[in-house]
Design brief:
The protein is about 40% helix and about 10% strand. By secondary structure, the chain is α+β, with helices and mostly antiparallel strands.
Amino acid sequence: MTDDSPPVVPDEAEFARAVRAFLERVVPRKGARPAKTGGAGVDRAREYQRRLADAGYAGITWPRQYGGQGLPHRFQRIFDGEAAAFHLPPRALEIGLGMCGPTILVHGTEEQKRTLIPAMLRGAEVWCELFSEPGSGSDLASIQTRAARDGAEFVVTGQKVWTSGAQHADVAACLTRTDPDRPKREGITMLLVDMHAPGVTVRPLRQITGESHFNEVFLDDVRVPVDQVLGEVGGGWRVARTMLSFERQTLGAIGSGGGGRGGFSALRAAARASGAADSPVARQALADVRARQMTLRHTAGRVAAQRHATGGEASMLKLTMARIVQDTAEVATGVVGMSAVAWDAADPDGGRWSAQLLNARSASIGGGTNEVVRNVIGEVILGLPRDVEVDADVAFRDLKVGTQRDG
């Protein structure tokens, strides 16, 4: 159900009280051990999102005509401030809500917005991004997944890798090559792919932590209707840049909590339990981490209030997040004691600090490597000259990139 009428802006204090009462009903306060994530975590996230929608808290700043609330961004800040005291479900829907949905609002057709956004806000569909490929990582524009036009459909063939949450996804934003005779950034089209369609195969990748957050995805003659083009045919690179900007903005906001289960409050409690909180050196390390997290949180909030961060701002948030998450993990292993490297197998929360340390390294890669985002910051914010690209005007099929190097 959508509503084109202007929103009624509520009283801020009353809004905060109502949010607090809602959260008290549906999620536990911090203090109890949060449940471990996994498949069940996705189910909890979907149920939580449905309850958010039913209570009128889904898409607080999103347009009302597509299922949002249409309120000023300060109400999202109020909600987030109240939610900080509670254990929220895993961020299994973040790719859709933080990256794909906002991009559809920018580049989607009216039909796409009215069809896809309400379902996303209710948690009815889980989304993923099919971007990186075995021969196309940091040089994302060298993707080789082909989408050939066949009447009213595209036939998609290729392989993607490092796809977060693909094993749970219903829909994917997929970068494809539709015209290899054009330069690499001009022959790309973004397609919205049904992850349950014939020809889609998802293979989870086992990580060093034992989890399978990332996946490789095989696309074998997958048929996608032409009306599922996001943006314009051949204009997918522009859409991808928008989505990457939202992704880096979202990652920056997530990283302001420290990147671990329970966030800084769990780290502080562990330091007290181990006795490290009595050490001036450990206290200084904790204070430094917390100050940087809070700075990132407020900066991310200011950027989010602008609705759409520039590539430079979003890259700045992402780079800051990656450094904070890694530094926080190292501080954690230094202050929590032996439980950072050894724990009782019967402890349902055992291994959390080891997992945080092992996961932290991926923060330098996800959403664009630190090297790539530094280039963006240098060009967009500092005004430095772009890197020289001798292949910028060369037809893609003539390039020695990705797995074409051996062709």
